[in-house]
Design brief:
- By secondary structure, the protein is of the alpha+beta class.
- The protein has one domain (21-171): Glutaredoxin (3-Layer(aba) Sandwich).
- The chain contains 8 helices and 8 strands.
- A hairpin with a 5-residue loop joins strand 5 and strand 6 (109-111).
- Helix 4 (79-88) packs parallel to helix 7 (154-165) and helix 7 (154-165) crosses helix 8 (175-188).
- The radius of gyration is 19 Å and the shape is globular.
Amino acid sequence: MLKFLGLTLLAVVVASLPARAVTVGEDGLHKEDWFSMTFRDIKEDVADAKAAGKRLAIVFEQRGCIYCREMHEKILSDPEVRDYIKANFMVVQYNMFGDEEVTDLDGETLTEKSAARKWGYVFTPTIVFFPEEVTGDVPVSEAAVATMPGAFGKWTFLNMFRWVREKGYEGDEHFQTYHARIIQELRAAGRLGAEE
């Protein structure tokens, strides 16, 4: 009985612990030490990601974004999510209202904020996924193979990265169908409860 009470108390304490604290940069954005720092030339970044055996993803965030904070503290801190993304993607962070220079795939030089407007990204976080190679001079919004606008839970988030890595966008299985199938498989394996 005491052992059961001790385990119950431990579970309550662990569940009440705050989410992982995340470093915030001078620009007000939450930082991951494994995000890539680049010159923000999209063609170069796609090529560099490919050379490393990865895919490029850019994430738009903004100062004070509670959903961005949640993404960093609860989703990117999860070892399963973080390790998968680190192994398979080169992630570059963009400030939705930033002034850093960006070179679009069509060669146009922009600021981060004018790039966000040009490409039509208005939510933070927004994650933009790229093909393994880029051909032609088209803007990012036309070259992207998938976009995840807004904040999602662990499995939707992770499954989008998996779907892109597996090139699901080239097949007939829509992301929502893929996601539902993976969730059913996780439930069958006992990794998820009925409520997830």
